[in-house]
Structures are given as structure tokens and as C-alpha cells.
Amino acid sequence: MSNVERDPVSTTCTRGPEATEPALHRVEILTPRDVPLGGPRSMSVRRTLPQRARSFVGAWCFADHYGPDDVARRGGMDLPPHPHTGLQTVTWLFDGEVEHRDSLGSHAYVRPGELNLMTGGRGICHSEVSTDRTTVLHGVQLWVALPNEHREAERDFQRYVPSPIRKDGAEIRVFLGSLLEAVSPVRTFTPLLGAELILEPGASLTLGVDATFEHGLLVDEGDIELNGTALSPAQLGFLRPGTGSLTLRNTSPARARAVLLGGPPFEEEIVMWWNFIGRSHDDIVRARQDWEEQSERFGAVEGYAGERLPAPELPNATLAPRRNPPSS
Predict the structure, then answer these.
(1) pLDDT in tens, 121-157
(2) What mean pLDDT is predicted for residues 209-225?
(3) Residues 6 or more apart whose Cβ sits within 8 Å of residue 10
């Protein structure tokens, strides 16, 4: 799912201030905001990133969490062809099935436990439609900011089905990066970690992780303690670099599920508006203009029964990035 809200706000994304030593291992709790993506029957998502308290977890710069959504009541997902620049999109489902088409010519079905990663560097467009087989739609949509040297990368689409790892009452699927003995073959432009974790009731799991990474744990269902800090569904627990292990404990009477994200701090500044990521106001203006003029920059989606999505109006203000705060 992409950012197709009617009135997107500009988001200036910068890395948060460096931690002082006492805060190094403290878990920060980020709570989402609800964002409707269209009309009265449209889906509503819980957006955890970006927000005022934090813009990035590594290069992860956008996190929407949605469902479980009754398709019969809401109508499911039907996102017309829409553009992207300067990012990779990561789709991970817990329930349902989504048909993906893009201007690279990719045609795929997104299913639970299967990673679909699309690269929209200089420009790509795609459509996403839940299939007739879907009764409940439930998952996360994540974006990764491309570093400046790769932000005009060629279009790409990758699919990967990770095998589950079972450890200490948990089932783990590593879809990006490496964890335990699992290594994802999916190509990214910065080091990343992405994994789904399912914990049985009462399960306690300790994972060795890269201490140079920031980490975020987005809870889907159940109550989970992360390094002793309680997290509820839809909350994201954030840890700064310097932590070499994560301990997760399911305090729920039923199973718990979460998505673990990680990566080294993203040192660059970006401007994000609608579905575009750039480095300046002019980058965004050009991308919007190219989309509205149906430029070859984004190509076209074949096989979608409907019109492409028009871009919203730009705000009457300059979209200006901020500098990262100085390191302490």
C-alpha cells in the first residue's frame, strides 16, 4: 500500500539527536496516527513513521500498519497506478492477497510470508488491488530511502519467500538482511534488517544483533516486552545503536507477532511528499510535473482496469529539508 491520502503533508526527515550514554539502551515508544486513504469505504492505516519524534529507523522512513480489515465491509484495496521516486517499497502481508502490476512489466501476487520489494529510483509506477480470494486484509507497507548516490537507480522488482526459523518458542522469517543463521538474498542499497517474529504465549527470545544498527520493533498483535519495556499492538519500540542483543517476551495469553526493522543511522536529509522522495523542493516539483504530464520517467502500468491516480496539489510553501542535528 502506498501513500494515497488525499491531502499529504510534506515531511522533513532528519535523523534524531544522538543519545547520551544513559539513554543509549532505553527503548523509546512511538505511537502511530490513523490515516484514512480515501472515501468512506476506504482503508485506514496506522502510520508509525515518519513522525515528529523520529523520522528514520536506519534507512526505513515510512511504516504503515493496516488491518485486520474485513474486505466485505470496507471493499478491500484498489490503488490505481501511482508513482514513486527515490525509494524502495516493501510489502509484507499477514492475511489476504494483493495483485501487483508495475511499469517494469512485473505482475505478481503478494501473499503472507512472501516479500515483494520494488525499487523506484528515478521513477516507477504501480497498482495494487486485493484479489477476489481475499476476505481479510492485514499487513505492513514499508519504505526505504535510497542514499543520494543511488536515488536515481533503475526500476527493479524482487520477490523472496524466506524459510521460517524456530527458536525458543518463536518463529522467525528474515526477509531482508541477516539474523540468526538466515541471510536474505534481496538486494538493497544500504544495510537493512527486516524480519517477522511470532512468539508463543510466554515465550522469551534473545537475539544477537548488529550493535551499529538502530532497531525498531513494530508490534502487530499481543503484548511484547522489548528489553524489559512493554509494547502494545501498533506501538513501535526504538533502540539506538550500541545494543548488541534484543530480548523479546510475549506477556500475552495468546501468540504475539511483530516486525523487526534495523539499519545503520541514515545520515542524509530527505524531503518526502506524497509518494516522492527527493533532496529539495525542486526535486518534488519536477517529479509531480513529470507524473502529471505522463512522462516516460514513470512508464505505464499495463493490465489495470481504470485510470491512473492524479497527484494532489502541492502546498503553498517551500518543502525544505533540515540538517541533521550535530553528533554529540
Answers:
(1) 999 999 999 999 999 999 999 999 999 999 999 999 9
(2) 98
(3) 271, 272, 273, 284, 315, 317, 319
The confidence score (pLDDT) of residue 2 equals 61
The dihedrals phi and psi of 120, each to the nearest 5 degrees, come to -115, 80
Give the Cα separation of 177 and 162 in Å (integer).
Answer: 11
3-class state of residue 153 by DSSP: coil
C-beta of residue 86 within 8 angstroms of C-beta of residue 268: no
Burial code (b: 16+ CB inside 10 Å, e: under 16) for 9-46 equals: ebbebbbbeebeeeeeeebbebebeebebeeeebbebb
pLDDT score of 8 more than 90: no
Contact 238, 265 (CB under 8 A): no
- Identify the weakest region by mean pLDDT among 18-32, 87-101, 119-133: 18-32
**pTM metric for this prediction:** 0.92
Cell numbers representing residue 16 in the block: 534524531
> Of 69-73, 189-193, 209-213, 276-280, which gets the smallest average pLDDT?
69-73
List all residues 6 or more positions away from 37 whose beta carbon is below 8 Å from its beta carbon: 1, 4, 5, 43, 44, 45
Provide Rg for the chain, Cα atoms.
Answer: 19
Q: Which amino acid is at 277?
A: I
In terms of DSSP bridges, do strands 11-13 and 229-231 run parallel, antiparallel, or are they unpaired? unpaired
